[in-house]
Every structure is written in C-alpha cells, then in structure tokens.
Amino acid sequence: MSPSAPASESTAPVTTEAQQHETKVQLAGKVIAGMPYLEMLTGANRGIGLGVAESCLDNGAAAVYSIDIATPGDEFATAQKKWGSKLRAISADTTKEATITAAVDKIIEEQGAIHGMVVNAGKTNHKAALDFTEEEILSLFNINLFGAFYSARTAARAFIKLGIKGAIVFTASMASYRPNKRVPSAPYGATKAGIRNMTHTLAMEWAKYGIRVNSVSPGLVETAMTYWVPQQPDWEQQLKYYGGMPRLAQIQELGGAYVYLLSDAASYTTSIDIPVNGVIGSKFFRILLVVAC
C-alpha cells in the first residue's frame, strides 16, 4: 500500500467548472431575436411572441428584435413606448432563409452580437383532415416547420461564426402530444410534433458548439383566437371534471419558461420540451387541448 499523500496535497477541494456557472435566471446584456406568432385573421408582432419579448426585457435583456413579415400593430407600438429602442422590429419572411439571414446580420451589425433566438413564427388552421386543401397544408408546413428550421439554422450559423454559446427556443404545442377533439388539425399537430423532434435532433448536432436547443409547449392561452373557449356552455363542467387551472393562461405566464431556457442558468439544459399547460392538456385531459399555440 502506498503511503498517504501529505494533507496539503489531498484535502483541499478543487473548484469545478460547474461551481462557476451562472445560477441567476436573468438575461442581462443578451440580445434576443424572435418571431411573433401569427394568429389567424389577426396582425403580427403580437400575442405569444410579444409576451415573450416583454418577459425577456423584464429580465434584463439588452435588446429584443421582433422578426416578422407583417408591419407591427398597435400592441407592438404600445410595448415599444414602454421599452423604447430595446424593442425593435425587422421585416423578414421566415419561409425564405435568405431574408432571415439578412435580418440576423442586421441585428449583429447594430448590436455586435446575438445570444438567443425564439423560433415562434407559425399559424394554425382547424378543420377536419378531409377538408384541408393542398394549399392550406403546404402553408402550415412552410411556416410552422420549414420556417422554423431555417430560423434555427440561421441562428446557429451566427452563433458559430461569433463563437457564442447561444440558445434556441422553439414554440411547440400541446397539440404535438395528442389530438384536439373539438378543434382538430392533423397538419398543424404534425408540424408541432416535427418541431419537438427537430429540437432533440438539433440539440444533439449542435451541442459540440455549446449551442442549446429546447422548446416550450403552451396549452390554452388567452389570445384573440381563444375568446370563445371560456364561453362554451359546458366550460365550467369540463374544468371541474378534468382538473387543472380553472382558466386560460395569460400570455405573460409563458415567459418564464422561455427566459429560463435562454438564460445562462440553463447552461446544461438542452433537448427538452417544457409544457406550460396548467395541467390542462395532460394525459388526463382528452377533450380540450391547445387552440392557441
């Protein structure tokens, strides 16, 4: 048996890299880009995307850029009065990768860096599978799935070029887990299931660059598109039977999940999906699922 090492050589604890990581959930100094969710028959730069943008700014983000093909509406203008130059809008078509690349290049030109991308652009269309036209199906896949891939890849290329360990957060949906009986949409659910699979695959591919890829799956969210949900005659009865939070989520209640995944506190968190559904939409809730994400 070899002699024991001197106490001076064996008793001092070694400070590991993990002990030096950020423990506060904050976005101080970070530049975040994101795409507002396109609700059917409403404007852009609003809804979930704008709520997430304000959550990022509330938690110290240096700047948040809204990337959208549409002109910012009244909600965005109101938010911009509060945040000033920290909240900006850039026009781009997420179905065309070149326009997203140009938008990200502009952000880097103005800010010197980009640290996070919220891939939130999308649309929805609820009808029976037999009633969808080919054009409607292609539109859903072009925006929800192909556009999401282009956006994530553009961000990853920028992170790698700048040597930044960036974060990408997709908006998936509880519809990616199971169908919605009352407002079905097979193509929509398929695109969101694709988002979750893409999250895992890209996280695996880009981990070597220090890039983290995750997703958030919102449940029932109070937006212009879901006003009818609590007006159903049997809404209260449904909530009592299935349990869960007895209300729709407010847009701002989604923000915490995105902020965490974008922050350095999540430096070892990648390839996960965070359902934000108030229990509604869980395996016990099989009638009402997502209508707003």
From TrEMBL:
Residues 1-21 are annotated as: Disordered. Pfam families: adh_short_C2. The keyword Cytoplasm does not apply. Residues 1-16 have a biased composition (Low complexity). This is Uncharacterized protein. Keywords: NADP, Oxidoreductase. GO terms for molecular function: oxidoreductase activity, acting on NAD(P)H, oxygen as acceptor; oxidoreductase activity, acting on the CH-OH group of donors, NAD or NADP as acceptor. The keyword Repressor does not apply. It comes from the Eukaryota. Belongs to the short-chain dehydrogenases/reductases (SDR) family. Transmembrane segments: none annotated.
